Amino acid sequence: MASQQPVVRVGVAAIISDAEGKMLVGVRKGSHGSGTLQFPGGHLEVGEDYLECAERETLEETGLKVKAEKALAFTNDIFDAEKKHYITIFVSCRRDDEQKQPVVMEPEKCESWTWRSEAELREFMATEEGKQRLFLPIANLFNDRLFKEHGSLTASI
């Protein structure tokens, strides 16, 4: 039997802010990166537009209807231990109803949803333990040289 060749997959992360500029993050569960903070998102399906993917994944995971507006950044994410490789596209999204709050729709994949500021997420990057609390694509984004010099997730939304 032939072994399956590894492939690079495309992940999409939805950046959704509240009125205070805090972003929606959840605690991953049952998959690579379990226990880390993630944005809503998932795999890009064959033939799917990445903006549509951000909207679909957000609804499936949080119950929130959003309008995906634009790509903000991308990262090259290599999960050595899991032998997985992703390109992650970060997409800014706006909630259709700013009053509606997220619900854990996939309890086997996500422990909880909460709102965190970009400063709080960046603080996690200040220590080695904190880096382990962020899902690899978010850590890679904050470590990206160009993003450090010119980027802000909340300023871009």
TrEMBL record:
Residues 6-140 form the Nudix hydrolase domain. CDD domains: NUDIX_MTH2_Nudt15 (cd04678). PROSITE patterns: NUDIX (PS51462), NUDIX_BOX (PS00893). It holds the Pfam family NUDIX. Keywords: Hydrolase. The keyword Iron-sulfur does not apply. InterPro entries: NUDIX_hydrolase-like_dom_sf, NUDIX_hydrolase_CS, NUDIX_hydrolase_dom. One of its GO terms (molecular function) is 8-oxo-7,8-dihydrodeoxyguanosine triphosphate pyrophosphatase activity. One of its GO terms (cellular component) is cytosol. The keyword Transcription does not apply. PANTHER family: 8-OXO-DGTP DIPHOSPHATES NUDT15, NUCLEOTIDE TRIPHOSPHATE DIPHOSPHATASE NUDT15. This is Nudix hydrolase domain-containing protein. It comes from Neurospora tetrasperma (strain FGSC 2508 / ATCC MYA-4615 / P0657).
